[in-house]
Amino acid sequence: MIADWPDRYLRAQAEQGEIDSRTVVCVLTHDPKFDVPVLQVALRLPQLAYVGAMGSRRTHDDRLNRLREAGLTDAELRRLASPIGLDLGARTPRRPRCRLLRKSLRAAGVAAVVR
Which domain of life is it from (predicted)? Predict the structure, then answer.
């Protein structure tokens, strides 16, 4: 268990050299007080393989506006995959989660099959 704010933890991990091209960040909280700060850090770490955030398209648009207000550039914002896990035809959360896992593993260069 980690008792810290996500943005502080991610920043500390980066400063300690624990982040590399196999690292993926998936934000699943749907709360701007957590989402925006951790995405600010993540989108400015070029070594991350993948940065994604779950939420509706409206949530995504709001998140982009907040990130722009926080000073992120269009180039940094283009790195954000969002909304992730979206599958309007899914009857259970399983299919979007599998697709999310597959995309993040592929981005990290991991050869794996997830079905």
Answer: Bacteria
CATH architecture of 6-107: 3-Layer(aba) Sandwich (3.40)
Q: Which amino acid is present at 100? A: L
* Global model pTM greater than 0.85: no
Higher pLDDT, 83 or 102: 83
Delimit the domains of the chain by residue range. 6-107
Asked if 85 and 54 touch (Cβ cutoff 8 Å), the reply is yes
3-state secondary structure of 37: helix
Average pLDDT, the chain: 84
Give the pLDDT confidence score for residue 115 in this predicted structure.
41
Q: Is 65 helix (H, G, I), strand (E, B) or coil?
A: helix
Angle at 31 between CA 25 and CA 35, to 5 degrees: 30
